[in-house]
UniProtKB/TrEMBL annotation:
Residue ranges that the Swiss-Prot or TrEMBL entry lists as coiled coil: none
SMART domains, per database record: FAS1
Keyword terms, alphabetized: Signal
InterPro entries: Adhesion/Biosynth-related, FAS1_dom_sf, FAS1_domain
Signal peptide start and end residues: 1-22
PANTHER family per the UniProt record, alphabetical: FI19380P1, PERIOSTIN-RELATED
Positions of the FAS1 domain: 22-170, 174-330, 335-482
Record flagged with keyword Signal: yes
The name this protein goes by in its record: FAS1 domain-containing protein
KW Transport (keyword) present: no
UniProt superkingdom: Eukaryota
Length: 521
């Protein structure tokens, strides 16, 4: 009887002891119904044991559930990325970004930067007064790398630590490239130049797109002057126009695969220290690694990578884009004539041959060319020749018909993809008739040129042509040859109408019928 009573008493004491166990950050999080996203993320990111330590002396800015829901739209990701076993551990870095040391009540918070408790980028806290002469309150704002938050509920005790609930998730990375330009104080000059491209351009759509994946070489504020006066003159000319600025920007963009760590440009297994990369402009840059320093070599001066930032988030919790801050703006060589642009690409030789044998051949070497060249690819010309039964030699030997074709591809004024307005724009008009127009998508920024006989999509970017300071031309590569309503190369065969979709369909049906007829024989 005494033994049974002793066991019962022991059980009661153990139960009482468990009920008064030390309060922790983890247990406090679990007690709030509006913090389930964060607390569940803690579990899935394997941080439960870390935050269950009663000796922690930290301040936690914990986002509310509403903040997490808003983040899904801000990053264009599913909420599963925060909790799935394969992705949640990668999210631990973001969760830890919300901690500073030591535990601090709002009454003791001063304006300034606070070191992250787990070694991340500092958080900047500012406080101000809102309200009126009768009722006012102190507002605390926390600025992270990629987002800001405001304290909405303060001074929640969590053992030796303090929790403040905030209205946004603090991001240690940028949501998109545009966010990086506007939020980084070292990039204000680049951001100002970029916004001069005007709203809703194809280029700004790329920078603001949450799904964009590039390696960005971003010149810092002090990088926009060069000791060489000729290089400075070229740089000034670039930034003074939409097409020049877009061409300059594309010289600083490297397409996928994205390189987040500068050391990863190089193959360490073979001790590689020099590598060539092709930019979106189609021009190449040479990167050289010496020790921990990466230098970018260009014809008009070199730059070093100073520091790097991550951008965006994928469904696999990986970053989308990398921004590398560099010490000098990279000034691409200016194609002094249309012929120099032709030399940059290997897929437009047929159009060079046609243009070079036409009445407008002299423009190829004109250093003061002003206007636009739409250059169809070799594949586009191959399709045209097959469609009409011509050879390239016959096309080159043509006269009036070919000149009419060239007039659709070479015209004034200079048209830049960045400068085109969304929707339809009339490009050339003759005798009151629209000969050529452009259609720019407001959602994707893609551009299609439309003539009276065909249409062509833009492939790649537009090239800048200009002899400083007089030239101002653009060179755009397209995927089809633009045609007039009637196309005749002057061979005496008479004009050939561009086949309509109905004609092509009937021809196909006729061919199928013939094949089936012979199958029955």
């Amino acid at each position: 009887m005494r033994r049974e009573a002793f066991i019962l008493l022991s059980a009661c004491l153990m139960s009482f002891g468990a009920g008064i166990s030390a309060q922790t950050i983890y247990s406090t999080l679990k007690s709030f119904s509006n913090l389930t996203y964060f607390s569940s993320s803690v579990d899935d990111a394997n941080l439960t044991a870390t935050l269950s330590d009663p000796s922690l002396n930290l301040t936690l800015f914990v986002p509310s559930d509403a903040a997490f829901t808003a983040l899904e739209n801000q990053l264009n990701v599913s909420g599963d990325v925060f909790f799935a076993p394969s992705t949640a551990p990668k999210w631990a870095t973001v969760l830890k970004y919300h901690f500073i040391s030591p535990s601090t009540l709002t009454g003791n918070i001063a304006n300034g930067s606070y070191t992250n408790a787990y070694g991340g980028t500092s958080l900047k806290i500012t406080k101000g007064i809102s309200g009126n002469a009768t009722v006012n309150s102190t507002v605390f704002k926390i600025a992270g790398v990629g987002s800001d938050a405001t304290i909405v509920q303060a001074n929640i005790s969590a053992g030796n630590s303090t929790i403040h609930i905030v209205d946004s998730v603090l991001l240690p990375f940028y949501a998109n490239i545009s966010s990086g330009l506007s939020r980084n104080s070292n990039l204000t000059t680049l951001n100002k130049l970029t916004t001069t491209l005007a709203n809703n351009t194809a280029f700004l759509n790329v920078l603001g797109n949450l799904n964009t994946e590039y390696t960005v070489l971003a010149p810092v504020n002090s990088a926009w002057s060069n000791q060489d006066p000729n290089v400075n003159a070229t740089l000034t000319n670039y930034v003074s126009s939409n097409v020049g600025l877009a061409y300059l920007w594309n010289y600083h963009l490297i397409p996928k695969p994205v390189v987040f760590d500068p050391a990863k440009f190089f193959n360490a297994s073979i001790n590689q220290t020099t590598v060539s990369v092709t930019t979106v402009s189609g021009l190449s840059l040479t990167l050289v690694r010496e020790g921990s320093v990466t230098t970018i070599v260009s014809p008009n001066g070199n730059a070093t990578i100073i520091t790097s930032f991550n951008v965006g988030l994928t469904s696999s919790a990986s970053y989308r884009t990398a921004i590398h801050l560099i010490s000098q703006a990279l000034v691409p060589p200016v194609p002094r004539s249309p012929r120099e642009v032709f030399s940059l690409r290997k897929d437009i030789g047929n159009f060079l041959s046609v243009l070079g044998n036409s009445s407008q051949a002299s423009l190829l070497d004109n250093p003061w060319f002003v206007g636009t060249i739409l250059a169809p690819t070799d594949a586009a010309f191959a399709a045209l020749l097959k469609q009409y039964g011509y050879t390239l030699e016959q096309l080159i030997a043509g006269s009036s018909g070919v000149n009419e074709l060239i007039n659709l591809h070479v015209f004034k004024p200079a048209v830049s993809l960045a400068g085109l307005a969304n929707g339809l724009t009339n490009i050339t008009v003759k005798d009151g008739n629209v000969i050529l127009k452009a259609n720019k998508s407001s959602s994707t920024g893609s551009v299609k040129f439309i003539s009276q006989g065909s249409s062509a999509n833009v492939v790649g970017v537009d090239y800048y042509i200009g002899s400083v300071p007089f030239g101002n031309g653009t060179f755009i590569v397209i995927d089809a040859v633009l045609l007039p309503t009637q196309f005749d190369i002057g061979s005496g065969s008479g004009p050939k109408m561009a086949p309509t979709p109905l004609t092509l369909l009937l021809s196909t049906l006729f061919a199928v019928s013939v094949l089936r007829f012979f199958e029955k024989l």
